Amino acid sequence: MNSDSSTGPSRATARRAFEERRRRRSIAIATTSTVVFVGLVVLLVPRMPRWDRVKQSFFSGEQFADSFPRLLDAFVLDLKIFAWSVPIILGFGMLVALARVSRNPALFPIRALCVIYVDLMRGVPVLLWIYLIGFGVPGLGLDRPWNSPLLWGTVALCLTYSSYVSEVFRSGIEGVHESQRAAARSLGLTHGQTLRLVVIPQAVRRVIPPLMNDLVSLQKDVALVSLIGPIEILRQAGIDKSKFANFTPYVVAAVIFLCITVPLTRTADWLLARERRRTGGTRIAA
Amino acid sequence: MTALLSIRNVHKSFGSNDVLRGISLDVPRGSVVAFIGASGSGKSTLLRCLNLLEPIDDGEIILDGTDISAPGFDANVARRDVGLVFQSYNLFPHMNVLRNVTLALTHAAGIAKDEAESTAKELLDRFGLADKARAYPEQLSGGQQQRVAIIRAVALRPSVLLLDEVTAALDPQLVGEVLDLIAELRNSGMTMLMATHEMNFARDVADTVCFLHEGTIHEMGRPDEVLESPREERTKAFLARTMRR
Ligand SMILES: Nc1ncnc2c1ncn2[C@@H]1O[C@H](COP(=O)(O)OP(=O)(O)OP(=O)(O)O)[C@@H](O)[C@H]1O
Ligand SMILES: [Mg+2]
């Protein structure tokens, strides 16, 4: 009895003190090295050759203040395109995924079409589709509003990203274990009910992290639509840059993008880590 | 005595692998049949065929006078009447216990939500799981999960319940609670067919034991006959191997 009550707590206390010392030491080391590093940057960077030119050209405070509101305004268009595209992409991507995993013989032509569609979209750069559809379709001489490059550029973006997303959904659906389907069918649920109530909810849950990554890419690629005309943030930055012969507007645009994409990426990473913990880290193909 | 379930000359093969080669068996209402046999002898396949999860190649499965294996018969209706419980529980991980139990009631049997929930709660209560109704499967022990899986099948009020090695995946100390549930179902008159490696349990609960070998029922009879004094050499060899473990 006394061996337990005497050595137990004292050893635990010693261990805790040891851990505490170790923790303090790492904090001290990290702090020192950070201070030294920042000091070096502050000291050395301004001594770089032509630092004044770099500062004036990329980090001009005045230019920043001048461009920021205009670029933020222009960014609203990016956000609008993004907001319109996401539901379309998720819906269409899911339909394509369902068509590809279906075994109904009547759907064979649709299935074949989906395979071709996904191959075409994934195999060609987004930019090329945006040029092809965004310039090409309005060039057919359609009436307003059907001749808008903005509309067709967005269509191109939706078509490409739907194909990526359909592959993500498909891997999620195929990743749901066969025994789940067997259990649902054994209870008398139909094939459709099994998909809707058992398979798809589990598939969606497990693909949320890779899906988020695709949405982050989409958020950035929205800017590509600028190349066919619409004045969104990237184009506005280009206009500002030419007008003032200064690159700061591009830096402003980058900062605005980062404000959106960094939190999104961090959330995706966090979701992925959580999913890995839950499933033992084996089942996700991102 | 007419049988509730009549299995007649059922054949099933996977490619060139003839797994079931003419299984015939009459199961009276309220009786319990245990299938024993080596791994790969076709116990799971037979149970999956009876639930129509696997289409059979030849033969008939007559339930209460109706050939449920006939081409064109609505398998979804038949499946509600022939419950199947799996070795690996297969609960739906994204639904809580209550919804696991009510899902087929509301969506397959067309029962109203309130009624389904009160049925489910009654059963959970009866089998000591009332406090787990809102829990998710991953929060339950293996034994609790398997009991929920059995309740999920029983909730549909099937005529026959098929149990495929329902204790095989459980830690030894959790086997008892599941076997108790099955014994209670038996006492309430449930007709059951079960594949099992639990010879003692088969002896206690089953009215008939069938030894499957190479796709046929090689020997069958009362548990004391088949398990204590088997007539066939193969049965003896199998039991000797099993008992030694
Ligand atoms: N879906 C399938 N496709 C192909 N072969 C299968 C399939 N299911 C089962 N088999 C084969 O059928 C045979 C019988 O398998 P089954 O699972 O019915 O045996 P079992 O008696 O349940 O064995 P165990 O005691 O290991 O559970 C095995 O040879 C198996 O490989
Ligand atoms: Mg088996």
Instruction: Report the CATH superfamily of chain B.
Output: P-loop containing nucleotide triphosphate hydrolases
What is the name of the CATH class of chain B?
Alpha Beta
Distance between the termini of chain B: 39 Å
Q: Summarize the helix and strand pattern of chain A as letters.
A: HHHHHHHHHH
Taking all Cα atoms into account, the compactness measure Rg of chain A is 27 Å
Helix content, binned percent of chain B: 25-40%
Bound molecules: adenosine-5'-triphosphate, magnesium ion
Task: Please give the count of helices of chain B.
Answer: 9
Largest sheet of chain A: none
Q: What do we call the CATH topology of the largest domain in chain A?
A: MetI-like fold
What is the beta-strand fraction of chain B?
A: 15-25%
Helix-and-strand structural type of chain B: alpha/beta
Strand content of chain A is: under 5%
* Stretches with pLDDT under 50, minimum 5 residues of chain B: none
Q: What number of domains of chain B? A: 1
- In the CATH classification, which architecture of the largest domain in chain A applies? Orthogonal Bundle
Mean pLDDT rating of chain B: 94
> So how many helices of chain A?
10
Uncertain runs of chain A with pLDDT below 50, 5 residues or more? 1-5, 281-286
Q: What structural category do the secondary elements of chain A indicate?
A: mainly alpha
Could you please describe the fold and organization of this structure?
The complex is a heterodimer of chains A (286) and B (245). With 286 residues, chain A is mainly α. Chain A folds into 2 domains: 2-40; 66-278, MetI-like fold. Chain A has helices at residues 2-44, 51-58, 61-101, 108-122, 126-136, 149-175, 178-186, 191-221, 233-244, 248-279. In chain A, helix 5 (126-136) crosses helix 6 and helix 9 runs antiparallel to helix 10. Residues 1-5 and 281-286 of chain A have low confidence and may be disordered. Chain B is of the alpha/beta class. The mean pLDDT of chain B is 94. Helix content of chain B is 38%, strand content 25%. A 6-stranded mixed sheet of chain B has the order 6-7-8-3-9-10, sandwiched between helices. Chain B has a 4-stranded antiparallel sheet with strand order 2-1-4-5, covered by helices on one side. Chain B has one domain: P-loop containing nucleotide triphosphate hydrolases (Rossmann fold, 3-Layer(aba) Sandwich). Chain B is globular and about 55 Å long. In chain B, 46% of the residues are buried. The structure holds adenosine-5'-triphosphate and magnesium ion. Adenosine-5'-triphosphate binds next to strand 2 and helix 1 of chain B.
